[in-house]
Amino acid sequence: MTHSSSQQALRHVARLSTGPPVEALLRITLNFHPDRGSILHALGTDGVYFSQFLTGTSNGGLTAHPGGDRWRWEQAMFGGAKDALDDYIEAQVHGEVRLDRDVEALVLDPCYRETDVEAAARRLACPVEWHPGFRLSVAELQRYPDYRGQRYVDLGVRLAENGCLTPRLIGDAARSGHHDQQDLKRVWHYLARFGAPAAPPTISGTGRR
User: Pfam families given for it (predicted)?
Assistant: First the structure.
């Protein structure tokens, strides 16, 4: 991304903004599903975090293309400053994001302990930590049919094990090829909105330095 286009985008956002600047020391998170495709293996090979414009993967819709919903959102957000660019990483991250230099930690859900996801994460050039995790019981899921729709509640019930839904189970379903990815996204919305932490966060070793 060129300096002039960066300044143009920042000026446009400043004109739309109100209130004081946010605290400069606030942490920034880059969120992705660690069990989709070969994301962690690619991070280990490249040592760099790339956006969905380059990877073709997403936590939500795959609309990072000219005319897509994500593209149009960024066009409005940044006043068209990025429309002709193809060499930048994510709209809110200006420049290269290196795991060995810019990343404090890769933070995983504890449902990935002792899995291939953890093994791949520990080969990265950054520490590995664990957040409290998200668990959603079938009983709690069934309380909210109007949130995304009964069909997604029913799908979540089918995916659950031992009466509980976790990120790993949704990831397994996504890789199986037996479910529509947009349906699974809406099941994920239920887990993110109504799921409860499973345990206190922990630091559990570091990746390769």
Answer: DUF3626 (PF12294)
